[in-house]
């Protein structure tokens, strides 16, 4: 029995090492959120047994949960580099034909050849319609639209785009060579009832699940969404010192379980030799 108990401990320590190693590997990944392995003990006894004489049977993995704490904000010189000072997510939509809706904290956005503002995996940033004052006129997912930079002023085709600005509420304002300024929309932000239920899909992107609940969309500075910081990126929320300490502890745990297996093997071999 001690073999299997220690074996479960070895598997648990290996999982812990894998999780910590992934955190360390993504220290420089923009918008990355660290994970933590959670474990529970295994115990079994029949109704007629007294539990005072039954030992535990090892450990099991309860789950690997992501820690959505705020990462450090780093200033850049690019207007389309966006960070969130709060708990919200940017809503982005994949390219055709699937056009899957996903959510990210990685605001390293750029402009493609079609003048669409996209993220690092090519998904298109979503905007909400706003009025002249910059207040969202709809918070429905169905009313979101792609963030596309105009070439010229819609009311004066001869006036070219000269500047883009994004304020703390996520309102995107375009300025043209004739001096006109129009609001293109507000960056669509999402929050969830149970953030730990989000399904990670890689590249600091997540999808909504039944556990997380549907996305609640609004513009920035509403509820827990937080504010948008233009010219800023959010770094990974990994504390390298803390991870290295955890790595040492997981390594010691692995070694201790390996030693327990070796001890059990020595005892078994001794018993076999005595019988011979």
UniProtKB/TrEMBL annotation:
<keyword id="KW-0975">Bacterial flagellum</keyword>
<dbReference type="Pfam" id="PF22692">
    <property type="entry name" value="LlgE_F_G_D1"/>
</dbReference>
<dbReference type="Pfam" id="PF06429">
    <property type="entry name" value="Flg_bbr_C"/>
</dbReference>
<dbReference type="InterPro" id="IPR053967">
    <property type="entry name" value="LlgE_F_G-like_D1"/>
</dbReference>
<dbReference type="InterPro" id="IPR019776">
    <property type="entry name" value="Flagellar_basal_body_rod_CS"/>
</dbReference>
<keyword id="KW-0969">Cilium</keyword>
<feature type="domain" description="Flagellar basal-body/hook protein C-terminal">
    <location>
        <begin position="230"/>
        <end position="274"/>
    </location>
</feature>
<dbReference type="InterPro" id="IPR037925">
    <property type="entry name" value="FlgE/F/G-like"/>
</dbReference>
<feature type="domain" description="Flagellar hook protein FlgE/F/G-like D1">
    <location>
        <begin position="83"/>
        <end position="173"/>
    </location>
</feature>
<comment type="function">
    <text>A flexible structure which links the flagellar filament to the drive apparatus in the basal body.</text>
</comment>
<protein>
    <recommendedName>
        <fullName>Flagellar hook protein FlgE</fullName>
    </recommendedName>
</protein>
<dbReference type="InterPro" id="IPR001444">
    <property type="entry name" value="Flag_bb_rod_N"/>
</dbReference>
<dbReference type="InterPro" id="IPR010930">
    <property type="entry name" value="Flg_bb/hook_C_dom"/>
</dbReference>
<dbReference type="Pfam" id="PF00460">
    <property type="entry name" value="Flg_bb_rod"/>
</dbReference>
<keyword id="KW-0966">Cell projection</keyword>
<comment type="similarity">
    <text>Belongs to the flagella basal body rod proteins family.</text>
</comment>
<dbReference type="InterPro" id="IPR020013">
    <property type="entry name" value="Flagellar_FlgE/F/G"/>
</dbReference>
<keyword id="KW-0282">Flagellum</keyword>
<feature type="domain" description="Flagellar basal body rod protein N-terminal">
    <location>
        <begin position="5"/>
        <end position="33"/>
    </location>
</feature>
